[in-house]
Design brief:
Length: 206
Amino acid sequence: MPKQVDHADRRRRIAEAVCRIADERGLEGVTLRDVAARAQVSMGAVQRCFRTKEEMLVFALGHIGERISERVQARLVRSPAQSAGTALGHAVTEVSLLQEEHRAEARVWLAFVAQAAVSEALARTLKANYAALQEAFTRLISEAGEGADRAVPLDPRREARTLLALADGLTAHVLIGHLTPQEAQDVLHAHLGGLWERPFLPDRTT
């Protein structure tokens, strides 16, 4: 009988190969030949899975997004009784990719972000990933803010957008050495703490 091919597994292996090569050489160093060698499949197998290099890169980017989402979900499942504010902190920490074990993933993620500026297909994938994260953050901020003592109500969607931008910025600052992972964590925690505190309002009666 002919050997059965697990196409989903092959595509995942190819995506992992793309990420490893991109981490070493950047996206410009990713070639079909090298991906095939790293994934231990033939070039024909790569071309049967993906018609173009861009299609392969789009799948690899989606693969990274899925891994990050799975870690966020796993973090939340481990502590189902935690508050929405604590859950938000865990989720944003995972998305920021600040831990040493996620450094390679952070390098590849930002390489894709840069390439998306000139690739509409990659930009669409990134926007879909960000939209899903924004919805999750918006929900958690809305839940956590219900009992917050604030003079000005939170705008959950605006705060979710701010958190996403902050997460990407901290990822970049740690990668280039402007901040240490601990300094980035401090910035993140200070911002999160400020969401639930009552802000100072100037006295407009004087």
